[in-house]
Amino acid sequence: MTQDQLKKPARTKFWTTVILLIVLFWVSAKSTDATFSELFDGLPQIGILLAKMFPPDWSYFSYVIDPMLETIRMALLGATFGAILAIPVALLSASNVFESSWIVLPSRFILNLIRTVPDLLLAAIFVAIFGLGPLPGIWALTIFSLGIIAKLTYESIEAIDRGPLEAMTAVGANKLQWIFFGVIPQVLPQFLSYSIYTFEINVRAAAVLGLVGAGGIGIYYERTLGFFQYDRVASIIIFTLVVVLLIDYISTKIREKLI
């Protein structure tokens, strides 16, 4: 067999893949009642909506500064509490820290369960428990942050250098000493990086939690959309975009210094 024959993919494999993708596309469109005619019929509505959003109502900025600050505070508190709770969960989920499957598997199952529930649904649940306001949003973002940070951190723990851990075991270090002096120093930069990254995600997530009454700028999204004030919606979107870009730039620079 020549080198060209080795590199060239089999035609049967290629056409099988194409046919499989076409079948999946057709079945998905059929199941969701999606058609190309509906897609093209709706395109002009996008232009009409965008025309109503411009020019933005720049005077509305002064009304949304405080809600935006509340959104950032919710994101910060959610990321901080989530990071604190993520430490024990990540350690329990790391198979090189606790080798017993009776500890590791339930911890990972809880993490999977947390990540399965959307943040908007979490906010709706906590609104039902605590009532309207920023507190349900903070709770929702705390659980949301816990799922992300713990997942990324335990994967980093499982990738650490085992040399220092084996040396500590050889001199008789107990489990706590093993964790404090062998595991945490190796994953601390990654853990801080994940926490900052989660704060950045939380700002975006917190912007829509107000749609279910969990405080922040989302309440103003709901009000302006409800009254068809699209020029004000455009103002809020632009304001949110500027804040997110600024936080993204700062967090990226900090994470570059950490790792």
Automatic annotation (TrEMBL):
* CDD domains (UniProt xref): TM_PBP2
Alphabetical list of Gene3D superfamilies matching this protein: MetI-like (1.10.3720.10)
* Entry similarity comment: Belongs to the binding-protein-dependent transport system permease family.
**A single GO molecular function, which one?**
ABC-type phosphonate transporter activity
What is the scientific name of the source organism?
Falsibacillus albus
- Subcellular location(s) of the protein: Cell membrane
The record's Pfam families line, in alphabetical order, gives: BPD_transp_1
InterPro entries named in the record: MetI-like (IPR000515), MetI-like_sf (IPR035906), PhnE/PtxC (IPR005769)
Membrane-traversing stretches: 12-29, 74-98, 110-132, 178-197, 203-221, 233-251
Q: Which domain of life is it from?
A: Bacteria
Classification from the root reads: Bacteria, Bacillati, Bacillota, Bacilli, Bacillales
Mostly located where? membrane
UniProt keyword annotation of Electron transport present: no
**Topology versus the membrane:** Multi-pass membrane protein
Protein name as annotated:
Phosphonate ABC transporter, permease protein PhnE
Task: Identify the residues that the record assigns to the ABC transmembrane type-1 domain, covering every copy.
Answer: 68-251
* Cellular component aspect of the GO annotation: plasma membrane
